[in-house]
Amino acid sequence: MRALLSTLWLALACSSVHTTLSKSDAKKAASKTLLEKTQFSDKPVQDRGLVVTDLRAEDVVLEHRSYCSAKARERHFPGDVLGYVTPWNSHGYDVAKVFGGKFTQISPVWLQLKRRGREMFEVTGLHDVDQGWMRAVRKQAKGLRIVPRLLFEDWTHEDFRNVMDSEDEIEELSKTMVQVAKSQHFDGFVVEVWSQLLSQKHVGLIHMLTHVAEALHQARLLAILVIPPAVTPGTDQLGMFTHKEFEQLAPVLDGFSLMTYDYPTAQQPGPNAPLSWVRACVQVLDPMSKWRSKILLGLNFYGMDYAASRDAREPVIGASTAQSTRAPTATRRLSSLLGAQATGPRLCLLPRAAGHHRPTAGVRGAVFQTIGSWWSGGAAEDLGSRIRSEAGRPKAAQALEGPRRPCPGLLSPES
């Protein structure tokens, strides 16, 4: 089985001085199942020697439920970081409440925008909106913006053409979005529409998005756009959103959630987000680094399991990772591997090295260093899919604690 968990952040922000394993306990754990602990600690993960290239299975299972409460609200990454929360991995709601201070925006995947007729639009999914959760998140993270994802759903070619060719339609669309945002106490939207238009001309879409962004800004709301990769995965071909479109929209939008994940196919398993490919996407969009701070690089907090069949794959979330690592049959040694192009950090369970792949906390920290050196931001895909801890310690929050030494684009934890 080959599974790549693009972010097993080890939830290891801290250990507890009150919880230790004796030699006899360790032997029992190795012969049966691996033990784990859930206490807090005042030591960050780096200080405990867990951000390394070689890990033991015992360490992964032992520490994945513990975290450093003292670091829960500290932020050291200077760029914008958007975190997605999905109903199908609802633990992300708890992650956002406890560690919202690590993010600049949280985007619940709640809403759909539908066209019901001429100058008639409806936002559906409002039954999922949780005002109590929103208040709790804002209370714990001052300045955090809640920007639900708004998917253009069930739009036909005729719908797009009629709206993009009519200023009245665009005005009504913008008005609907502003009214919903105000009535529901949102701070704006993450708009997902570009891929829905497929290969059709996007000139009209740029015009429409410009007007929508202006209307949102007039109401003091954010406008962020989800965009597909600028380089088609596995090729050198440009995608459907490149420098030309980026240059026109960058001045009017607040950010771009770049879908730099799910790189491999079922037929060619591999790293979910090779850095060489991610770098190419950024360079295509903004070769002169003029608007890099608005690019939010997609970082998926789930892996892919290619074991079911040669023609299929399925997501792997943190709970299954901890379970498989805890299994009695799992070898107690784990090694960090790099892909052929030094861009796919994975953690391999041995002797099934050909099957299970997980990322290491050490290499994930290097990923954030790289993002910082590009002066870009990040977009964490599905906060609820990371390894779950009882107190909600997210792998994202660990990564955002930053490296222990200053590097270009990043602040040191002590700053």
UniProtKB/TrEMBL annotation:
Residues 1-19 form the signal peptide. SMART domains: Glyco_18. It holds the Pfam family Glyco_hydro_18. GO terms for biological process: carbohydrate metabolic process. Residues 388-415 are annotated as: Disordered. Saccharide- and LPS-binding protein with possible roles in pathogen sensing and endotoxin neutralization. Ligand-binding specificity relates to the length of the oligosaccharides, with preference for chitotetraose (in vitro). This is Chitinase domain-containing protein 1. It comes from Equus caballus (Horse). The lineage of its organism: Eukaryota, Metazoa, Chordata, Craniata, Vertebrata.
